[in-house]
């Protein structure tokens, strides 16, 4: 029996607003328990919700970026159920008329093939608070700081056919929301949460099999593991003649397995109805157009531009564009030095990212700002210093605030390009190492490196290596 | 005993013939003397945390009022007539309360009410029944029974109430006072404990339309904290009070005059129509064909919204909390069983039912469509007439206990009033006479945001009649 | 269209209400009459009309994304005797 996997992903993205979706309390992460809760967030008697403008704008941005339709009129609905982290006893969400409808995203698989994944809808809703089970011995502690934080729930079509595709889609959405600056996508802090709806069916069957919902997926790796495990489990059952129970399962990364969630509602009837405290959200074309114009260049466009306009290698272009902030750093550097984009790209991908990884910092806190890097690289480009010396200076610039020029001057590092002075040294070296000279003449060309090295040593590395190379050959051939 | 109007108190305080302290004491003494027999107040005196931002030149500075215990007032116990909130001290002021505080008014106390505003007789309150000052074996109506009784008995010159299906107008009619439900969205709902969000509206119970006009000017207005609050400008209602009524066309819906009203009440209605005709008003027969569906529509929409609004009462952050903490489910159920009364439970269950899977389309969605039909009936009628008139209730005050076991019969009390809540139009009830020594009221309904018309019409009527000035026997001897 | 006792139980579960046997019987008959009354709506011809969710023809106002509420935890937690270390507490929930 040949099985086909059918997957739909539901991703909850916390929007990066200052205040909550329906109240003016702060959304800042890590505050002491229940200090970011207004009366509205606490569901006190008599309070009412008022909608955060930026949350709406962010949702529209997302919708436009995935070529979806922005609903000119959308409705907020109440999803009614009881849980201690849900103060009002209902969650304000959207059901029938969500703010974003349709859309799609192109994903790229490991083998390079591309696939389009449809997106059914994206809607706004409020996040719930947090339950902490191990704080008190026989009670659960409730922290409502998170209650009311705006969420964008993004629902894909069941177009995904493998764990790899799922991971790729999840990463693409992750990249997109960071690109659009609507979310920091921090999975550890819960700003980006993924649930997977998984089912299998015999190849060729058009009906969907029974699906299970897998929750608690908070990394790209886990999504693949969780899905693979769940698919295996389902196929196992079906092949044994058992049926699949429609249920919600929790992914346990330590045991690499999914298990049914115990507390999940026995067929909870959410009794959705339009929230009478909120009016229909109406968005005019002007607003949509304005936001469309303010959309940043997205990944695919950027990569294409890097390749075509800047002549960067494709793999480098993709690697740089992958992270919005790195791309911004790259482009900012190019603003000050544009002669050789590939060189800038090389330096960023090896030297800069090397430091980021080593020191475990983000590019935003990286000590060498684009302008300084640009000035360093332009000195390599104009042959004032060699690439090797530049790397040395680069390391110095991590702890020094001096510009490249200042350091070059202070340390007398200007490259020697005067042929005569170099030639003098070349002659000296060739006299001292006449054996090696003979070896070269006999055809052992790699010995040139040794000779170049000797000249470089005697010039404290300041001679232009290319020139040294040239002059040695010339001198030998004389 | 003199039942001063707000207008009179304004003048007295302004010309300094009496201080606001003296006025406050007068009413406080009356409350203390009478509350045991009427039970209009749940709590007396309020935590007067003066913010010091009162306007000096407010025209209602020093005027005391009674506040239905559904409004959150900072520092005061706010119970909503329920055991669920019997220990709840509100940390904030409702916007309408804040507005009135800024104008220097003083809260006399929080008035008794049907639990969570669900009821038409003030017999569902955790704090006991309110008695009708005209006959203490009868109900004053509800849910703003306490506010109505307080004003009728002279315990407060004016009171705030809420009207979701008639809860201001019906008790006003049964206690012989004036009761105004403004247009939905006219007054802020922020701080007004929610029952049915798309129907609830804050309003006024007073001796006269003039008093209602005075207070409405200061209460009403846009509130950024309430998404359903209207930005419509608040007119100076008092400026319209004396406008000439001649030429005004009033519609009499045939559905309100279908013969089901007992002849003794019909007689009063005819007399008042005659009185209005003398002032130049023309009456016209109209029809509101879908009005007969108001009660069933209301009893789908209101319970649905309330079942959701009352889910927050779970004992976790405030309010009554069961001591049973064996498991979460038991904890919730016990807390809510102990905290809520019968009528509230009944409505929550009804509401849960009509919203539940499989029933939503047939009930809730259907009711919201019928609601649109009812609204259209009003809009169409108002193309032909300026306002609509009819009785407020089908009978005068009924006896305590008469309807408690028959919810549907209780619900039918709201038959004339409910449609204005469904449509959101403003309406006012005013006394038009007595039957068997019990007051009876008539209602005037206007298009959205035309409160000034209502107040004008009733004011003119009150200038040539004195039904609204009649005082219940029980309080005639007060102040001696 | 009559309502069954099991339905009342289900509704109680959804709305977290406890009704004892007696209350359940009373409610059952009362609900019956309420539903009879509501049933009238079935016959109304509502055609193509849109449901009326709000009495006013307004659309939702948007609030500027500013922090306007600040920490008042201690003041608010005065309303419960069951807060500890700033947390609210409930009987243990098993996930």
Provide the descriptors you would attach to this structure in a database record.
heterotrimer, A: 478 residues, alpha+beta, Arc Repressor Mutant, subunit A, 3 domains, ten-stranded mixed β-sheet, B: alpha/beta, eleven-stranded mixed β-sheet, 35% helix, globular
Number of helices of chain B: 14
Q: What overall geometry of chain C do the principal axes of the alpha carbons give?
A: flat
Please identify the top-level CATH class of one domain in chain B: Alpha Beta
* N-to-C series of helices and strands of chain C: HHEHEE
**Low-confidence segments of chain C:** none
Helix and strand topology:
The complex is a heterotrimer of chains A (478), B (480) and C (95).
Chain A: E1 3-14, E2 51-52, H1 53-65, E3 69-70, E4 73-74, E5 77-80, E6 90-93, E7 100-101, E8 104-108, E9 114-126, E10 130-132, E11 139-143, E12 150-156, H2 163-179, E13 192-202, E14 212-217, H3 220-239, E15 248-252, E16 257-260, E17 273-274, E18 281-282, H4 285-293, H5 299-310, H6 314-322, H7 324-336, H8 341-359, H9 370-381, H10 387-399, H11 404-411, H12 419-432, H13 434-441, H14 447-458, H15 465-477
Parallel strand pairs in A: 14-15
Antiparallel strand pairs in A: 1-12, 1-13, 3-7, 4-18, 5-6, 5-17, 7-9, 8-9, 9-12, 10-11, 13-14, 15-16
Chain B: H1 6-14, H2 20-38, E1 41-44, E2 64-68, H3 95-102, E3 106-111, H4 145-152, E4 158-162, H5 169-174, E5 178-181, E6 202-206, H6 209-219, E7 249-253, H7 263-278, E8 282-286, H8 294-309, H9 328-339, H10 342-355, H11 361-384, E9 387-391, H12 407-411, H13 418-423, E10 427-435, E11 438-445, H14 451-464
Parallel strand pairs in B: 2-3, 2-4, 7-8, 7-9
Antiparallel strand pairs in B: 1-3, 4-6, 5-6, 5-10, 9-11, 10-11
Helix pairs in contact in B: 6-14, 8-10, 8-11
Chain C: H1 5-15, H2 21-39, E1 62-63, H3 73-76, E2 83-84, E3 87-91
Antiparallel strand pairs in C: 2-3
